[in-house]
Specification:
The chain is of the alpha/beta class and 402 residues long. The protein has helices spanning 13-25, 36-46, 62-71, 86-98, 113-120, 144-152, 194-199, 203-224, 230-235, 250-262, 283-296, 312-317, 327-330, 337-352, 365-373, 390-398; strands spanning 5-9, 29-33, 50-54, 77-82, 102-108, 156-165, 171-182, 186-188, 237-242, 270-274, 299-305, 322-325, 356-360, 378-380. Bound molecules: ligand C2E and calcium ion (2 copies).
Length: 402
């Protein structure tokens, strides 16, 4: 418990001190400051694991602070507090998630001690045994040369996060999520290197390595996992993230087909998750390629639906088989009526187009129950499991009631 440190930024000393008392009582070390400069100093030197952030302050508002935290790749869990209305708080929470920050919750003032305590509780799963500790909150800048070297040395590893059927909890598939085991900085998350890989034309090499690793793991799993019933094994699918830029690289998908054959994985088992469909370099060529991929049997998913990146136009134009509700709506579904409306709307829209619907970012039982009630097909999120190493995934499987 002693290694949890909460840094509080609030212009109101009364609120700051209240948060401090509650958190100290919950066993955290706490530092409180009303001054943004001092806040960033402490961030660098004291390395908090949690941050409580007031949204409205006179000198620098909470949104600016969050933007700066995102730039610094801050990994601390953030609690947003404020006296503004719940719609504004919700919007701030969603914006933070979109910035890639780890939001523990939004807290409308006045709040009860138990609400705050709940958010300070670490509900994360066990940290994987086979992966190194997470990288520190701040990283020196990653360069193009670093990325080249990492690809040459094959420093990227794949984590697998289960997708389950909402109605029964049975396993339906896994999403492959890349991580970089950096020799000096430890484990780096995709948000820390994918944008650079995309802008420097290295993303296809990375995707190649991810797919190769994932297929080599997934092939034997489908063929041999004794923990799985034959029905589950037949249903299991592997989801891989594909950047918009990759959609002009026909050769890459030809290689994927060859790898599928080599690993005895039928193309219908693979689903490519596409984000930022609106950023496709060449919409016509992409449509051709995606249609061909569907004809071969591969499935396509429109990822992060509901955010500006995956548009309605693309949903109708491209041959998708799955729609993924963005986690920013799912994670706030239980606290925000607006988010629930959006989630249900997307699920209904997906079904009316004949698509399978997956909700990602499912963090608690209530959200899963809600998704089941509105007829969502699949769920993915920390409540079910965090992304796991291949070995930990098998342990997770073995630990579940069959
Ligand atoms: P994504 O495709 O939307 O992946 C889901 C992200 O949400 C993952 O973050 C996952 O760890 C996280 N997540 C899952 N469940 C929960 C939950 O219950 N709560 C919260 N707070 N988060 C949850 P991750 O692994 O950091 O990946 C971030 C993004 O990086 C991915 O978003 C995807 O766009 C990109 N990415 C990951 N792997 C690859 C890859 O191999 N290729 C490409 N092009 N992009 C990748
Ligand atoms: Ca995805
Ligand atoms: Ca997503």
């Amino acid at each position: 418990m002693g290694d949890r440190r909460l840094l509080v930024l609030d212009d109101d000393p009364m609120t700051g001190e209240t948060i401090q008392r509650i958190a100290e009582f919950a066993g955290l070390e706490v530092c409180f400051t009303p001054d943004p400069d001092r806040f960033f100093d402490l961030l660098h030197n004291w390395h908090p694991t949690h941050i409580a952030l007031d949204l409205v302050m006179p000198t620098m508002d909470g949104m600016q602070v969050m933007a700066r935290l995102a730039k610094l790749s801050c990994r601390a869990k953030i609690i947003i507090t404020s006296g503004v209305g719940s719609r504004v708080l919700d919007a701030a929470g969603r914006s933070a998630v979109e910035h890639g920050l780890d939001i523990a919750g939004v807290l409308a003032k006045p709040f009860s001690p138990s609400q705050l305590r709940e958010m300070l509780l670490d509900h994360g799963g066990a940290v994987s045994s086979a992966l190194p500790a997470e990288a520190p909150a701040y990283l020196p800048e990653i360069t193009l040369a670093d990325l080249h070297q990492a690809l040459d040395r094959q420093e990227f590893v794949v984590a697998y996060q289960p997708k389950v059927l909402c109605a029964t909890g049975e396993l339906a598939g896994v999403e492959a999520l890349v991580r970089w085991v950096h020799p000096s900085y430890g484990l780096l998350q995709p948000g820390q290197f994918i944008p650079l890989a995309e802008s420097c034309d290295l993303i296809d090499r990375l995707t190649d390595q991810v797919i190769d690793q994932a297929l080599a793991w997934f092939g034997p799993l489908c063929a041999g996992a004794t923990q799985l019933s034959p029905t589950t094994r037949d249903r299991l699918m592997l989801a891989v993230n594909i950047s918009a830029r990759t959609l002009t690289n026909v050769a890459l998908f030809e290689r994927v087909q060859e790898r599928c054959q080599a690993h005895r994985v039928h193309p219908t088992r693979l689903i490519f998750e596409l984000t930022e469909t609106s950023a496709m370099d060449d919409p016509v060529a992409s449509l051709d390629l995606l249609t061909r991929l569907r004809m071969i049997g591969f499935h396509l998913s429109i990822d992060d639906f509901g955010t500006g990146f995956s548009s309605m136009l693309q949903l109708v134009r491209l041959p998708f088989s799955e729609i993924k509700v963005d986690k920013s709506f799912v994670m706030t579904a239980m606290t925000s009526p607006e988010s629930r409306t959006v989630v249900k709307f997307i699920v209904d829209l997906g079904h009316s187009l004949g698509l399978r619907c997956t909700a990602e970012g499912v963090e608690d039982a209530k959200t899963l129950e809600y998704l089941t009630n509105i007829g969502c097909d699949l769920a993915q999120g920390y409540y079910i499991a965090r992304p796991l190493t291949g070995d930990d995934f098998c342990l997770w499987l073995a630990s579940r009631p069959s």
